[in-house]
């Protein structure tokens, strides 16, 4: 009995810790440095995600970042699915851990991205109907308004209703709610700019901060 419990705890630890470490891989920073675009943290908003990488003018690096950030969520969930033969609770914990890893990566002193691509990767692999509907929502909103943050926030807030509509297990519903809340928290500044009508559109550089006035 003890050996069985130990095996369960070990499996859970591998899924959660492995998910977090996978999520912590900063693909945006790695791609821009290896691609000769410098440190993405010094460009635009300073975020390590694909939207900010696009502001560097390198669409190829932005695509690599998008695929990498989504892919690490996919791998974390698939690892948990393989280890537990599809246990929804462990899958949700591993996916949530990967998402937290992207937001708070140990390699970057816990200063990470906003989690949108990883959010989609986790959802698509944990519950593909929810992920697909969220992705379609993002594409539709982005096509209409050309504002990445608005598209992401809309998709995030609809993820839980999508999970309910497609009859997903409770852990997956909890995962969708958990990630949506953190996406809203991480997008506080974006929300403030949206309310002011100042949020930059996709592909456009974020306006530079005004220089401080010199003392007379």
UniProtKB/TrEMBL annotation:
Biological process terms in GO annotation: phospholipid biosynthetic process
Gene label: plsY
Keyword Glycoprotein: no
Membrane-related topology note: Multi-pass membrane protein
Any single GO CC term annotated in Swiss-Prot or TrEMBL for this entry: plasma membrane
Cross-referenced HAMAP family: PlsY (MF_01043)
Subcellular location: Cell inner membrane
Known catalytic reactions: an acyl phosphate + sn-glycerol 3-phosphate = a 1-acyl-sn-glycero-3-phosphate + phosphate
UniProt-listed Enzyme Commission number(s): 2.3.1.275
Family the entry assigns: Belongs to the PlsY family.
UniProt KW keywords: Cell inner membrane, Cell membrane, Lipid biosynthesis, Lipid metabolism, Membrane, Phospholipid biosynthesis, Phospholipid metabolism, Transferase, Transmembrane, Transmembrane helix
GO molecular function, one term: acyl-phosphate glycerol-3-phosphate acyltransferase activity
Xref: Pfam families: G3P_acyltransf (PF02660)
NCBIfam families in the record: glycerol-3-phosphate 1-O-acyltransferase PlsY
Record's protein name: Glycerol-3-phosphate acyltransferase
């Amino acid at each position: 009995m003890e050996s069985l419990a130990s095996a369960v705890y070990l499996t859970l630890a591998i899924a959660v810790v492995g998910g977090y470490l996978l999520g912590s891989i900063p693909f945006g920073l790695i791609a821009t440095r290896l691609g000769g675009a410098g440190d993405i943290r010094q460009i635009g908003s300073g975020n390590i995600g694909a939207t900010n990488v696009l502001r560097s003018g390198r669409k190829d690096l932005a695509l690599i970042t998008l695929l990498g950030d989504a892919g690490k969520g996919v791998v974390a969930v698939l690892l948990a699915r393989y280890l537990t033969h599809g246990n929804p609770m462990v899958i949700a914990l591993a996916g949530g851990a990967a998402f937290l890893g992207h937001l708070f990566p140990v390699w970057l002193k816990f200063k990470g991205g906003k989690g949108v691509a990883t959010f989609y990767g986790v959802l698509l692999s944990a519950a593909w109907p929810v992920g697909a509907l969220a992705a379609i929502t993002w594409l539709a909103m982005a096509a209409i308004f050309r504002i990445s943050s608005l598209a992401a926030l809309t998709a995030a807030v609809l993820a839980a209703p999508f999970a309910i509509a497609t009859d997903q297990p409770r852990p997956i519903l909890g995962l969708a709610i958990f990630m949506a809340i953190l996406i809203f928290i991480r997008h506080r500044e974006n929300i403030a700019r949206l309310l002011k009508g100042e949020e930059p559109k996709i592909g456009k550089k974020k306006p530079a901060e005004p220089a401080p006035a010199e003392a007379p």
